[in-house]
Amino acid sequence: MSPLAASFMRCRTPAEFYQLAITFDCTATPSEFAELWNERNILPPEAQAWLASGWESMFAEPTKLQQYHRKQINEYIRAYIGAHSERSDKDLVIAFSGKRGRLFLPLAVWLQYMSDSAVDLVLLQDPLLRFFSGGIPGYGANLAEVLARLGADMNLQGYRRILCLGGSAGGFAALRAGLIAKAANAVCLSGRMPNDGTSAGDTFAVGLDELKGLKKADTAGTRMFCAFGAQYPADRAAAKAFAKAGKALLVPVEGVADHNVAFGLLKQKKLRGFLSETLFA
């Protein structure tokens, strides 16, 4: 029995299992998911059901298993380096998670929709729950500081292109980061408006003013996309506000009536095409 399988076998309560599953979803590579999948028959029924759902999502649009290894940069920052190619031949995706540390889907699913020979990814989490406006503890006091330090730690200039991706509470940060880091493309998935405890409207207005300023100073021509469920009014409203401030392209996804637009694209078997037309365009 592998250490991964043993960790799930040690769970004694639903709460323990749920916490472990969330952690695994947020951190595991496709290879780690495959290792656990190969031992699924010894796992408890609830673990088997959860694992089957993730495995099905990884191969909703068939592809080979992508080979990535994980590198810890900070307690809240992890890099996933593809097993093939030199850095200069690859894009780097800077990904901003939502409030639960996830980007709507398990990380292994996202990596399966990328290419280990063409893409590396670094995932940032926001423990302060301030839409990354407060930075990341122990790393940078604001988003600009975080990106500056990440530039040194990950040698951002060595990559072919920088790309930004964020979902929910991380969506707004992805747009801002795209402009700060002079990314080629920045994609916001069902972005939520910032609210740091003051009036949501006032805080949102401040954030939009910042985005307008960044866009006005944009010299790299960063292309920005705001995707949302076409039948989900709350996300449509936020996307329109972001798009207006940052001159981003609105991407309504038909048939999606909830917040998780990424899962909607996955169910429709359109996630790979969406990424090709936005993030990797």
Structure description:
It is a single chain. The protein is of the alpha/beta class. Helix content is 41%, strand content 17%. It contains eleven helices and eight strands. The protein has helices at 3-9, 14-27, 30-37, 45-58, 107-112, 143-154, 171-180, 200-216, 233-246, 261-267, 271-277, and strands at 68-74, 77-82, 91-96, 119-124, 161-167, 185-189, 223-229, 249-253. Strands 1-2-4-3-5-6-7-8 form an eight-stranded mixed beta sheet, sandwiched between helices. Helix 9 (233-246) links the parallel strand 7 (223-229) and strand 8 (249-253). Helix 3 crosses helix 4 (45-58) and helix 7 (171-180) packs parallel to helix 8 (200-216). The model is unreliable at 196-202 (pLDDT under 50).
Query: What is the strand arrangement across the widest sheet?
Result: 1-2-4-3-5-6-7-8
- Mean pLDDT rating: 92
What oligomeric state do these chains adopt? single chain
How many beta strands in the DSSP annotation? 8
| Silhouette | globular
Q: What are the low-pLDDT stretches, counting only 5+ consecutive residues below 50?
A: 196-202
Q: Termini distance?
A: 43 Å
**H/E element sequence:** HHHHEEEHEHEHEHEHEHH
The biggest sheet amounts to:
8 strands, mixed
Given helix and strand content, the structural type is: alpha/beta
The total of helices stands at: 11
CA-based gyration radius? 18 Å
User: What's the helical proportion of residues?
Assistant: 40-55%
How much of the polypeptide forms β-strand, as a percent range? 15-25%
Summarize the structure.
The protein is an alpha/beta fold. It has helices at residues 3-9, 14-27, 30-37, 45-58, 107-112, 143-154, 171-180, 200-216, 233-246, 261-267, 271-277; strands at 68-74, 77-82, 91-96, 119-124, 161-167, 185-189, 223-229, 249-253.
